[in-house]
Amino acid sequence: MKEKLVLIGNGMAGVRTIEEILDRAPERYQITIIGEENYPNYNRIMLSNVLQKKMTVSEIITNPLEWYEENQIELINHDPAVQMETTNKKITTQSGKEISYDKCILATGSRAFILPVEGAKLPGVVGFRTIDDTENMLEAAQKYQKAVVIGGGLLGLEAAKGLLDQGMDVTVVHLEKWLMETQLDEKAGKMLQADLEKQGLKFLMEKATQKILGEKRVTGLAFSDGTTIETDMVVMSIGIRSETTLAKTTAIEVNRGIVVDDFMKTNIPDVFAVGECAEHNGNVYGLVAPLFEQGKVLADVLTDREAKPYQGSTTFTSLKVSGCDLYSAGTIKETEGINSIEAFDGLNYTYKKIFVRDNQVIGVVLYGDTSEGNRYYNILKKNESIEDYTPVSLLHMVGEEASADVSEWPDDEVICGCNGIDKKTIMTAINEKDLTSVADVTKHTKAGGSCGKCKSVIGDVLAYALGGEVVSAPTGICACTDLTRDQIVTQIYAKKLTSSEEVYRELDFTNPEGCPKCRPAINFYLNVAWPKEHEDEKESRYVNERLYANIQNDGTFSVIPRMRGGKTNPQQLLLIAKVAEKYDVPMVKVTGSQRIGLYGVKKEDLPKIWEELDMKAAGAYAKAVRSVKTCVGANFCRFGTQDSMGLGIKLEQRYEFIDTPHKFKMGVSACPRSCVESGVKDFGIIGVENGFQIYVGGNGGTEVKEAVLLTTVETEEEVIDICGAMLQYYRETGIYAERTAPWIERMGFEVVKEVLLNAEKRQELLAALDEAVAGRRGNPWDEVVEDHKTQQELYTVGRI
């Protein structure tokens, strides 16, 4: 009979321990895992990416339900353990289920600490610890305007940035003088605050929360200095507390956490603890790398291998917020016997500080440039003497830095700090399992599976192991396939696949019907590849594109009629006013693209409004060419050098309703004052005395990217042609849902420039674009107005 092993807690530390046990002795135990949440094991580190909508919940699931089935693990989910009898080795869950064990691992994790102040239990006060917390925050962000995050630590800042990205007005309240004070010194903390303020976050430093205001829901905060702030939501992120409730009902020794020895044993026989609930030598760790180190030790113990005692961990921290690269490891405070080496580069806004004791690195703070984080971390972990290192070097030649050649790194060089994976482990896996991609390495070793910042280094190790360059790190476009965008598009052309159904079948997608992530992408790639043969699959498009209108947070829609170049006339204004009045439209607003939008329209009213307006759609709902923003231009402005409005209208007439990988925004300014912000547009034009400057790859969204000057041309025709060539090149090479800023970064600006400025290539692209859009639909609103069947199918209440 197999021994019964029960894991209480379905989180990262506990499940990693089970994985390690399965690697060592897959047939040793009959395993049961008891979890509190209604999800399989997921990567909690990536919750901030879900909040920032960089990832979906499904993408952070590390062990899907199939994994439990394949390994014959009984998963008792959404039914936490509430009672533990260590004498007769029995556990009872909340539903009353009883499970016996021979050995038990406690991996109950931690809880977000909620300040014990008046009002802490009001609706709208949340922690940031679970998928449910994250989804509650996203839901609240759709309904409310203002949020306060209490706590300027790692999670607090990631939560604040996520809510800011959802359009909320976010203020971070912090008790200390600078942000992340346990990981950063004052200078780095102030640099971080300045960068986050540029992104739109607000800060109240050295503020102590005394009371949360509100009766039925949170309405504000009151501070100990007598000041207050209004808010609709409060996110508590001031730390975590080990979850020891179950252990405290037994004779298990509990202090700050569940007390364990060097082999993760508690004081009760056959009961062990790992992760954030465990306390080792007075330390409780809240970062993932130490928890995985503990898991390896315990796996050795439970499979009767010679186990090296756990000696504690040196931790490091990095922040998952765009535009704020920081790294911190070890001891970062100057006390007696500890000195530092500090370097601040004001030109590139980077900062490095190394803390040294007895000629050994004991702490690191990096801001702005974290590329050497792994190197410093390895020096720190190995207690390496720095006598032979040059402490400071300025203005040395490029290439004279320490070698970045992974072939010269020792086998014990840590590549993935999150998971504690060294070079030897990765090399062994590559050679023994014939791995050929970064995704394969991550799958078999876990390296790169947490924060992901080490993937480029993993690629270097892979290239070294395979004896050549790894051009890319293939990862599937979704969970249905391991194929990349380029691999899929290549096969679409090679096999003449003209429908999504053929793609899923011929390319062996695991889901024969695709998923919500890949269906819109495959439909787009087919549209580009076979514009005449492929019939657009409307059911594969997102709801906004199916209904030709943007859905709002209350389930109503917006109607944005096209006004080419932002130009309108009294007749259009009268029509808009009459329609808004007739259909009780709750809000009429001038949009950011200089159009008039009707907001709060009922779905069933959309076709009637479109018919009565008798205007074209502005395409504000689509991944397509959007309206062109213009200034009044030389015809009226005393500074204007060109007819910006006329050029904007011509661009819209030429390229409206063309699908692109993501929305494509344009702006035409008549002079270098650039009143329409041409410098942050996908395609921006600035009129100068001798013609037009063309800027490409700008983005004014959640991560602002400045456009790059492509060229200066003399005529409007050249502008229009270059724009068309860029559109087609972007359509042919872009990844679906990729904006032009990352597209240009991925392709390389010089490559894009060479293509667009080559007259022959430009004409080829324009010809391809003309062929692709030759039969494109006109105004989609007209199609719906004329098609009563479509109206019944899509615009009847209750139908999508």
UniProtKB/TrEMBL annotation:
Pfam families: Fer2_BFD (PF04324), NIR_SIR (PF01077), NIR_SIR_ferr (PF03460), Pyr_redox_2 (PF07992), Rubredoxin_C (PF18267). Residues 552-614 form the Nitrite/Sulfite reductase ferredoxin-like domain. [4Fe-4S] cluster binds at residues 631, 637, 671, 675. Binds 1 siroheme per subunit. Residues 317-383 form the NADH-rubredoxin oxidoreductase C-terminal domain. InterPro entries: BFD-like_2Fe2S-bd_dom, BFD-like_2Fe2S-bd_dom_sf, FAD/NAD-bd_sf, FAD/NAD-binding_dom, FAD/NAD-linked_Rdtase_dimer_sf, NasD-like, NiRdtase/SiRdtase_haem-b_fer, Nit/Sulf_reduc_fer-like_dom_sf. Pathway: Nitrogen metabolism; nitrate reduction (assimilation). Residues 414-463, 477-526 form the BFD-like [2Fe-2S]-binding domain. Belongs to the nitrite and sulfite reductase 4Fe-4S domain family. This is Nitrite reductase large subunit.
